[in-house]
Amino acid sequence: MTSFIRNRIRELRAAENMTQQDLADLIHVTRQTVNAIELDKYSPSLEVAFRIAQVFEVPLDRVFQYAAPPKRRK
Question: Which of 8, 42, 43, 46 is the most exposed place for a label (fewest CB within 10 A)?
Fold first, then answer.
């Protein structure tokens, strides 16, 4: 199954000179979880998504974007 949720976490971290471990500590998950979210291999819970947005002091939709799957032709 393809994920249609994309994120800008790596970009936001770079702007703050923050490591994956730094972010993981702030949002109470493992570094591996942050890595999986950044690589679009894992979609975080809504609570974790809000924590990430709160760390960067940006709206949730600036961190995560949903791209609807292409419509099937009949």
Answer: 46
